[in-house]
């Protein structure tokens, strides 16, 4: 049996990590976070795929492509987190595990960041741990998948 696929989805402006507001988001690049997630996925027997888009439709397309194929999605949707209802609906159509991820803690920032349209369709959210969050998110996915495949579970 082939290893379950985990899609890591990165939204707008995350391609600028390392240069963009380092005091908020740190100095690591997106490529470095993806490498961290990839290593964590490998340890957990998962295959990581990564897609970054600066466009809402690009993220929606990536979720559609994951349907019926990927076991889980870890999504840092950037600012789209706070208003992209088409992404909410796409994630609602995905029947695997969904983990919402943020480097910063949006609830401790401006009020407009306190709403997440991703949270209601996610199994859980990880925020405020910087780059460590990528590892924590992959480990959470692996543990949820393991619990779901326990014998006797409906
Ligand atoms: C972010 C938080 C969002 O509010 C912001 O728009 C981002 C990054 C984070 O990872 O902390 O682009 O998702």
Protein traits:
globular, binds 1,3,4-trihydroxy-5-OXO-cyclohexanecarboxylic acid, single chain, alpha/beta, 154 residues, Rossmann fold, 5 helices
Structural features, described:
This protein has about 150 residues and is an alpha/beta fold. It has one domain: Dehydroquinase, class II (Rossmann fold). The protein is built from five helices and five strands, in the order E-H-H-E-H-E-H-E-E-H. A five-stranded parallel sheet has the order 2-1-3-4-5, sandwiched between helices. Strand 3, helix 4 and strand 4 form a beta-alpha-beta unit. It is globular and about 45 Å long. The chain binds 1,3,4-trihydroxy-5-OXO-cyclohexanecarboxylic acid (DQA). 1,3,4-trihydroxy-5-OXO-cyclohexanecarboxylic acid binds next to loops.
Order of SSEs, N→C?
A: EHHEHEHEEH
Annotation, overall tally of beta strands: 5
**What do we call the CATH homologous superfamily?**
Dehydroquinase, class II
Give the helix proportion (percent range).
Answer: 25-40%
CATH class: Alpha Beta
What is the arithmetic mean of pLDDT? 97
Oligomer: single chain
Strand order of the largest sheet: 2-1-3-4-5
Indicate the proportion of strand residues.
15-25%
Structural class computed from helices and strand pairing? alpha/beta
Shape: globular
Poorly predicted regions are: none
Identify every distinct bound molecule in the structure, by name, code or SMILES. Answer: 1,3,4-trihydroxy-5-OXO-cyclohexanecarboxylic acid
The CATH architecture term is: 3-Layer(aba) Sandwich
Query: Could you describe the largest sheet, including whether it forms a barrel?
Result: 5 strands, parallel
Give the CA-CA distance, first to last residue.
21 Å
How many domains would you count in the coordinates?
A: 1
CA radius of gyration:
15 Å
């Amino acid at each position: 049996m082939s290893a379950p696929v985990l899609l890591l989805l990165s939204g707008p402006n995350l391609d600028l990590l390392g240069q963009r507001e380092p005091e908020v988001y740190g100095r690591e690049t997106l490529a470095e976070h993806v490498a961290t997630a990839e290593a964590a996925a490998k340890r957990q027997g998962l295959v990581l795929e990564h897609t970054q888009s600066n466009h809402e439709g690009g993220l929606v397309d990536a979720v559609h492509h994951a349907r019926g194929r990927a076991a889980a999605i870890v999504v840092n949707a950037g600012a789209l987190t706070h208003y992209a209802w088409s992404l909410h609906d796409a994630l609602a159509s995905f029947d695997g595990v969904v983990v919402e991820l943020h480097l910063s803690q949006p609830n401790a920032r401006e009020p407009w960041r306190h709403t997440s349209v991703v949270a209601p369709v996610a199994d859980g959210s990880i925020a405020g741990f910087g780059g460590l969050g990528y590892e924590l998110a992959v480990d959470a996915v692996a543990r949820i998948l393991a619990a779901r495949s326990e014998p006797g579970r409906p």
